[in-house]
């Protein structure tokens, strides 16, 4: 029970219970999707590069610079560094890219990607996730400048997370998945060597966590530093951990306004898709909880009355919002797999300011039926969910898999899609959220 005895309670875990409100039909949204780029595979990242251009990463390796009218030119290609299954559905590849907050001066940027399994990993595991620093030279990246900061061995191909972002504190945040497969438990799968109660609740492993590191002040003999106020900076768990109990964080971004909160989405297993606000020391529940229910690792569609193991005094942070997964709620679920986005702080769409804009990947794993959402915080502090129905794509879905969102320097948002759900199809597109009818 080592994992349990080392659990620490977060200081700021008193969140209101998740709000599972009815799904309000949207009046005319005043929003349209403007097509900027076609012929990509599966775009995973769009972020500001220099105010004039954005960085666009594709999961299979290429990173481009994109002009405001959607013209691309090569910046880097990670294709030869990846372990990836081209042409198939895959959760490996280029998963996160972030520029250093002082990129204009130091030209440093960070990429989280799925590399072949390193020599020190268990031989039957799948791959190693690398978080590396690189230095750009003008408009291209020199990949020989790679400095590997952090490596996480991954037992399975899926649930990698890999999204990264810098916080207002200047530190780099990384969301790591629980290691994959399902249930986050190894009772019948001992070779994959997860803890007795899974990786999410084990604070001695880096899987299933939100991590926070200091890239600017490396500790002696290390490639990075540990912020002094990380929950386990002085012991009790891995010092990189900022929050835990995470399953598969496919989306992580700081609100650039408001309270500068860290929004994360959690791809659920079969019943609940979550939006969380991540707080330091927070335990987000997985695999004891899915949504605000006690998860049943033996019968995933039937939640338990009490936790499947005794979590002692552990306190859990509930999602600010969760919607039903169609696997668990065939009649009124809203999707299958949540895709994280951003709190809108741009100028073009005043009706969206302060709302968290995100999506479901697709309502049907085999068909492109992604749906956009807007979450709104009420005056009572509770969040409610609405479909964001672009007037250019009216209906119950936008007719594409929603792979990711992007944000430019002005705070305007982009929707990154694919038509096949697989890598290598050449159907990837980038759309900008713009005012309808302009
Ligand atoms: Ca959770």
General form:
globular
Task: Provide the spatial order of strands within the biggest beta sheet.
Answer: 1-26-25-24
The overall pLDDT average reads: 91
Q: What percentage of residues falls in helices of 4 or more residues?
A: under 10%
At CATH's second level, what is the architecture? 6 Propeller
Task: Describe the protein's architecture and organization.
The chain contains two helices and 26 strands. The protein has a four-stranded antiparallel β-sheet with strand order 1-26-25-24, with no helix packed on it. It has a four-stranded antiparallel β-sheet with strand order 2-3-4-5, with no helix packed on it. It has one domain (2-435): TolB, C-terminal domain (Neuraminidase, 6 Propeller). 2% of the residues lie in helices and 37% in strands. The chain has 438 residues and is mainly beta. Bound molecules: calcium ion. Calcium ion is lined by residues 266, 274, 284-286, 289, 319.
Outline of the structure:
The chain is mainly β and 438 residues long. It contains two helices and 26 strands. 2% of the residues lie in helices and 37% in strands.
